[in-house]
Amino acid sequence: MGGGKRDWLLDLSKSDLDDDDCARQCEAKVSLHRRRCPQGELLPYQEIDLSQNHLVWRGCQAVLDVGLKCRGLCVVKLFRNRINDQAAPALSRLVEECPQLEQLHLSYNHLTRRGSEEIIAAACRGQKQRRAGSRVRTLWLRMEHNRIEEPAGMLQDLVQRKVGVCEALDAECSPKACKRCAHVHLPYFARQDPPGEERGGPPSSTAQSSPADAAVASTAPAAATPARSSAVGASVA
């Protein structure tokens, strides 16, 4: 980060990228780093931002490839794309295998219950493994405005299966901490889009931002306290 450069940020947001574009851009960034740095040195990125593009699923594999090469990746922003359930395997590896990941933003995409459950389960596995030897922050996982039918019922099912999730309804729950010590925060999760409604991808220039969008725009904890909805407590195994 010397010289004022934002070497910690890989920002490809609002770049009109599809999956193939994303793969090429990520490969170019990695190649440039390899030329500049000693052999084997990990990438410096703490945040990857590919929000407001046109990714569907292959682009998420490119994000995973970069993420696994980072020494301290904390935040990944993929909101407002067209990401569907085919991306779930790559995103599951991301949340399970990136040890310092604290936030993953997937709102305004095309995930259904199948894909979201796979990602949440992987996130909980990863958090359990990391908590074995040290204190780890609850993962802040934004999945609102996808295509998840009956989100309240899904949350109840996760709790019954002892998956450690929390809707972050309490004021003491934030991207930094969970009052219930859950593995995964799911703020705003109850806000899902009807099947067939087109809400993914970059917003139009005239689109109005919601309070949830404003919270996504910043990783600062003060901007991320969700509005109240139906409560589901954590059950951490």
Description:
The chain is α/β, with parallel strands linked by helices. Helices cover 31% and strands 8% of the residues. It has six helices and seven strands, in the order E-H-E-H-E-H-E-H-E-H-E-E-H. The protein has helices spanning 19-36, 58-67, 88-97, 113-131, 151-160, 211-216; strands at residues 9-11, 47-49, 75-77, 103-105, 139-142, 165-166, 184-185. A seven-stranded parallel beta sheet has the order 1-2-3-4-5-7-6. Helix 3 packs parallel to helix 4. It is globular. It starts with 8 loop residues before the first strand and ends in a 21-residue tail after the last helix. 43% of the residues are buried.
Short description:
The protein has 237 residues and is of the alpha/beta class.
Q: How much is the radius of gyration in Å?
A: 17 Å
Give the total of beta strands.
7
The helicity comes to 25-40%
Which parts are unreliable, with pLDDT below 50 for 5 consecutive residues or more?
Answer: 205-231
**Strand percent estimate:** 5-15%
Distance between the ends: 39 Å
What is the average of the pLDDT values? Answer: 84
Shape category: globular
| Strand order across the largest sheet | 1-2-3-4-5-7-6
Which helices and strands appear, and what pairs or packs with what?
Layout lengths: L8 E3 L7 H18 L10 E3 L8 H10 L7 E3 L10 H10 L5 E3 L7 H19 L7 E4 L8 H10 L4 E2 L17 E2 L25 H6 L21
Parallel strand pairs: 1-2, 2-3, 3-4, 4-5, 5-7, 6-7
Helix pairs in contact: 1-2, 2-3, 3-4
